[in-house]
Amino acid sequence: MTSTTEIRGELDIDGRRLSYWDFGGPGRPLLALHGHLYEGRTWEQLARALAPRWRVIAPDQRGHGDSDRATSYTREDYVADAIAVLDHLGIEQAVTLGHSGGGITAFQIAARHPGRVPAIVNVEGPIRDLDDGPSALSFVLSMPYTAPSRQALLDAIGPLAPMLGDKLRPTADGGWRLPFHPQDTIASERATHGDHWADWTSTDCPALFVLARSSQVITPEQGREAVARRANTHLAELDGDHFVHTTDPRAFGAAVKDFLDTLG
Prior knowledge:
Distance between the termini: 20 Å
Strand content: 15-25%
Low-confidence stretches: none
Mean pLDDT: 95
Number of helices: 10
Number of domains: 1
Strand order of the largest sheet: 1-2-4-3-5-6-12-13
Shape: globular
Order of helices and strands: EEEHEHEHEEEHHEEHEHEHEHH
Radius of gyration: 18 Å
């Protein structure tokens, strides 16, 4: 791995703070978008694996991490935020990479702004989700947003403590909070539902679809269909579940690097 010079930056979007990590370096820009329950720091190990050829910029997406909560969480909202980050940094083109809902955003940025995206990495981002039932993330509604102490919040989130423990934030009144608001998360997850085939297939820039062999979200058939129906798209099947980028970061980083190396 190669070290990077990282900075925490932020921009103001109509009075709402959007925070981001810029992992620095002289390389080509890559915009990395986390999924629900995560934050920009999720991509730190990937940034180090790709340096110095790639400069990874990773926002805490709206309502996550150090970014402010928002009044809405539509697909267009997420795309607009991503473009705002690139504009703020003076970046005309960036490879877009995203996990889960962030993966959907990654290819929707390309669909809305094709001239700004030379390549896409979609990590387990569904192309079609017409589920009208309970949200897959409905379990977060049983979690408190804040608690008087870090330990109290860890106790309250129970089995999710190992995943979220390092993401908890102190509050101004001395308490602690989750890195997302449960109600916001449900609204955001529901906004990912729908048929996104038109967006996925509207561009033909090089793309990588990362499919986890033990995914709880995408079947092998769905993953291979996503690759087959879009021009210039490659498949990387990796061991692990939907969160393969965190459970096996070395294999994930190698797959992404191999793909990026083909871009010249």
